[in-house]
Predict the structure.
Amino acid sequence: MTTLKIDINEVLVDCQSVWKIFGQNAKAAMEAVVHKGLGKTQVLQDFSCVVGVSDVSLQVRRGEIFCIMGLSGSGKSTLIRLLNKLITPSAGKVLVKGKDLSALSPAQLREVRARHIGMVFQSVALLPNRTVLENTAFGLEVQGVGKAERYQVAERALAKVGLTDWSSRYPSELSGGMQQRVGLARALTADPEIILMDEPFSALDPLIRRQLQDEFRQLTKELGKSAVFITHDLEEAIRIGDRIAIMKDGVIIQVGTAEEIVLNPADDYVAEFVAGISRLHLVKAHSVMTPVAIYTQAFAQCDFSRLTQTSLDADINALIGLTIGANLEPLAVVEQGVVVGIITAKDLLRGVQGIPNDAHATAPFLEPLA
Amino acid sequence: MSIPDFSVQFDAAVDSGLMWLQDNGESFFDAANALLSGVFKGVAWCIGTPPFYVIAVLIGLLGWRMVGARFGVLSMLALLVCAFIGLWFETVSTLALVLTATVLALLVAVPLGVLAGLAPRFDRVVDPCLDLVQTLPPYIYLLPAIALLGYGPATALLATFIVAVPPALRLTALGIRMTPKEFIELGEASGVTGWQMFFKIRLPFAMPSIMAGVNQSLMMAFGMVVIAGIVGSGGLGESIYGAVRTLDIAKSINAALAIVILTMILDRLAQSAAESREGASQ
């Protein structure tokens, strides 16, 4: 999908053991946590402080959409506000493009917020006394960019979200979905590398929401932006995110791709979440196949040439189609012209259940190729 | 046991304090008097010099532009009525007094209100002062003002100014304080400076509240300007006071009619100014 040449290993946002404790005695509570290892409930009892974010470390790389999924009260909104220092961490460091936010002067921090980190809010927060165009140009206006230039850039951003015809309207004339598009256009206008999305689509109805999710993902990938996307909806996280972090009680329980999380949930809490998620489009061939080495070990003479071929990242839905087309014969997974794995109908059924193929589990299912 | 009575000592202290002010601040109060009556006379001259029908037509046109054609015609006719009942000069003088006092009050109230809205500590000091000003009967301001500034429009101006300050100050502070949290976040996340936060985000949200305060101050000023007739404010207030003293019912009703006309016209104009500001935000 990526159209721009970007270094996907470059870390843009680096959170290092970040904590946030709210309350009057936050400082003392933080020290007690560090030195005595106090837990969340104890902090609340002894210091009447609330632990919002607890020892979170994460990296967001260039061009990546990083979703943080959690229910209300999990600390996800606090966490995203730590990334542009709308909230100051109680402990730990947040580095944006290698710069420690807490070491910046107020002017430098404004500069980072204005040029490098855009933000989109659940409430959208469009200024009611300004037109759509003036709202979109707000970031550039703050930076002191001249009127003609900033309106030109804002027009282009509005065009990207499909709102060219609405630029002279006021926000109250727009539907919720359109308002959120303006919010996104406003964040894009200053051309930041990172966009923070704080539950932007939560208040929209399901259809518009799906549409915006797809548009957002496409646009972000096209422009090569990194995004941190907060949501309470796992399906949304799966739809949008390259990687997903699952958060509960201020702690990140698991980080991984949608497939990793669905196939190997870190604990019962995550397992419960992913239970209802359809595997059809999530689980890919590389997770369900039996590596070809295991096959050749068990059955010395194998002829893969007449099997239907598929690729490593074909999803279960596609594989089922192929298997039926091949009369339930196994499929050969091919990478760069070489067969790397075999998928039988049994492997596929396991995949639908969300059970990955590791050699031990599937060994009993091995059968000679006809 | 009888209640100890310190009233004699208290009164003496107040009197001597006032005397001391009079003796030691004479030049200051003379200058203040000259300044206030100078400003008042200037404004009165501007409105009073053109013939009455010119002013009536001008205000009628203003009403037409800001409110509507019907209001414009009605306010022009109403002002002509003021002239035909022989109270044109008094009406103009009252208008000048109200406008001067309100403008002076806003010059003080709006900046202080902004400060009170931004700094809760300052608000805690100002709030009881405003309570005091608003609960004391308005007559109270007239006596010390007379003692210090003498009989005449300067005293009326000062007393009117005092009652006109609190509403605008309070509503300005309220408006500044009430900026929705998500817009403060928007500003911070966009990297605004302190000034930009104030002018681009806080002030636009506070504007309807500030305009309501302006309107309230204007109305308070109208109320006070009649009372200030006692201290020689001139204008309709003094006409009413004179009519009450001589039990001239017809004259008092004429003057009251003129006051009502003037108040209604200014109230509607101020309201529509506030609404047109809000209209831009919809």
Notes: The interface with chain A takes residues 180, 182-183, 185-186, 188-193, 196, 200-201, 204, 207, 280-282 of chain B (CB under 8 Å). Chain B has a mean pLDDT of 88. Residues 194-227 of chain B form the longest helix (34 residues). Residues 24-279 of chain B form a domain with the MetI-like fold fold (CATH 1.10.3720.10).
